[in-house]
Specification:
By secondary structure, this protein is mainly beta. About 5% of the residues lie in helices and about 40% in strands. The protein is built from 5 helices and 62 strands. The strands form 14 sheets. The protein has an 8-stranded antiparallel β-barrel. Strands 1-27-28-29-30-34 form a 6-stranded mixed beta sheet, with no helix packed on it. Strand 23 and strand 24 form a beta hairpin. The longest helix has 14 residues. The protein is globular. The protein starts with a helix and ends with a strand. The N terminus is likely disordered.
Length: about 850
Amino acid sequence: MLSVLAVALVLGACGRSATSGGSPPGSSKVADYHYAVPVDQASPWPEMRHDQANTGESPIVAHYDGGKPWSFPTGNSIFSTPVIGGHGTVYVGSADHSFYAISSAGHLVWKFETGNLIDSAAVLGQPASAGGPVPVTVGSGDDFLYQLRTSPADLSPAARVVWKYQAPPPPSAGQKVSWWEGNVEMGYGGTLLAGNTGGAAYALHPDGTLAWRYAPGNSVWTAAAVAPDGSTYWGSLSGTIFALDRNGHLEWTVGTLGFVIASPALGTDGTLYGASFDGKVYAIDAANGKVEWTYPTADNIYGSPALITGPSGRTTAIVVASTDGSVYALSPGGQLIWRYDTGAVIRSSPAVGAAPPGDPAGHIVYVGAADGRLYAIDASSGQRRWSFDTTSTNPVARDRNQLNSSPALGTTGVVIGSEDGSVWSVPYDYCLHAKDPRCSVGPGAPLPADATVTYLVTPSGATEATLDPTAAATSVLPFRLVVRRKGVALDAGFDARNPPRVTIDPSVPFTTALSGDGHDLFVVPQGFLQPGAQYRVTISGDYKVAPPPLGDGSTGAVQTTLRLSVPATGAGPLPLSVGRNSVSALDLTGMAIPLPAFLSSVNAIGFDSYDWIVSTLSISPPDGQGDGHVLLFVVGAKRGAGGSETVDPATSFAFPLEGTYHGNMISVASSDVSLTFSFGSVPMQEFMLRMQLNRKLDSPSPPSLYGVSHCADIPYYGPLLLSVTDLCNASGDLVASGMYQVSGLPTSPAAARPSGVSVGSMTLTRPSGGSAGSFGATVNVAAGMRYPAAAHVVTVVLTDAKTGALVPLDYHALTTVTAGATGQLDGVTLRIPAGTALPAGVTATVVTDAFPLATEQFGA
């Protein structure tokens, strides 16, 4: 296989070295890129990694055509890589459930709505007949793989679909869903290749029927690299990189010590380059699976490697980005050529394009980072050529600026998606020609060349490289240790044996927790910071540096004092209320957990799938200082007609949150919440939401969240996390922080009293000895009214009648709803496990959807 592979790929590389007909860069003339598989031959970027070998390399020369950047808004985050048609049309999926066709000028051509999120890239195929519409195939979280017509005509959804293929139930014991999160690739003969969260790699015939599938033991999220003999190369969450023959039979497998999400790239000499969450780059002989070398980075690798091809058609460099914030260029022998540190987590896969004729760069590397910047890096020196900041000016969206999408290279510029839902197009070398405050030029990195310092981290996970940072009054305060020498970031962490010390002046009560790798320190205020105030925060402690090549093995001490300013956002009373017939409710969406980088990498789109209604169950009057107690309730929701929010009866989320408020600032938490992932439910030892609300129930500053889970309690992956990763700290905990979006639901039916529904008798049986207790309530539905149990969520919440404190229980898991012969709701029961300590006085609240329908007190 190897000799055929080398010859074919070299010829392919030579054929791709220029566009057909010698079309100049930026020309509107349709080009032919001589792809070896039947993708759209006129497309400059037809699939996630450009070509069947997953090189991530384009022959297009970076020529500035005088254009300006544009952005197009979708309704939710974008994690998928755009693909670009022959006339510049951009095709991309969004977490708003829709797949978009966007013109080269940034205008909507059409969109197609699926039943769930889209976070995988599409592939543009060849038209069925000359001049016909190009088919585009894309997967969705609704379990369907869709082939769509790209005709710009106003087609109905049914007419837009050529075919769709539904994934079967998950073959992997580690997964519960069959979402299409693997990027679709084109194989020889028009075979479509895609991985599935359910745990298999699939090959489909051009007509959408199954050719074969292979189950490696866990999710397959990578795009397959394709060899001329039909062999394909994949990665899996099973921690493997593996090869299949053209019929889907296993040829070889290479084990790693982490999930494999990066799509492998096939070099012209038959070397396969992969990467893993163990932080290593792998060079593998594609013929037999022998590992030729590995190279370590300082954190998980999420993005796929890109290859730079020399004039001879051979691979001259492998470019990979790590969540440690650096972009690495490695020689084919595994030696470091250069490293560029952005100072921000990178999940984006680098793309490589040609530099202008005569430019010493030769090639340019493009990559997005979690600081919202698109970077262009000189491939010969490893220095920044320019960067463009896509961060929104919107005060809430500005912190959702992570470029987790990967760049696609078009004929005139770079296209990339943002977590704020925008698709951006930036002309090649625009920043070298325009005076734009969003541009930065020159070789420097955002961080100082030499530093031993602790910086604040934003809710989106970006490092605030200043000693004068700002933070919202309701923020959790994560800090990051940064150790740099001569422009190179070292892999350094706080010494867990002597945890760092924190002082805050003026004094604020707080708790601290250290991340497993020691890079991040979480400071959680127990109250709120004072709007308009400035705090002096001092962090001191010992640190350790990793041995070469990621450090020098040294130890030392660090002390940093930061002047933390808190913006004076609008104060006011708590704008929540509890009425007889309705209660205040919030729409909570857009959850993101960027710390640790691992969590956002493996579940970015999963968190964004959470859609919650948060209602108000009770509020105590404020005391003389403006403080009080608040009890909220969270229930899973879904979008109804016109975008309205309705309760999802199939939800796995129905739980209370209790806490305090001061004015219009809220901090609520629970110690019995389980977050649902594709592989099951993860119990949280602590889950906290913090926010400030104005009169419209919007948040004037980014809300923040904080969570702690025992690694041993995580299903399926717990043993792996404890044994081979540094995600778990000395206490065996995985500590995380992030953000979300919140807005008011002024007329939500879920937070209103249901017509004709009432609670009859209520009984409480306390646990005794080794026996469980229970709470039971009958429910009456008036004649002529309908309230089907299967269409609603009914929960019971127990609190201390004296203090309002929650009785800590997993309410959703312990609640059973009963229905009569016609399906009408007729009762609800809460099992109270043996050993549960109930207060002397218990208040029981029956919640229908998100409304506290009835409350009764038991005991003193």
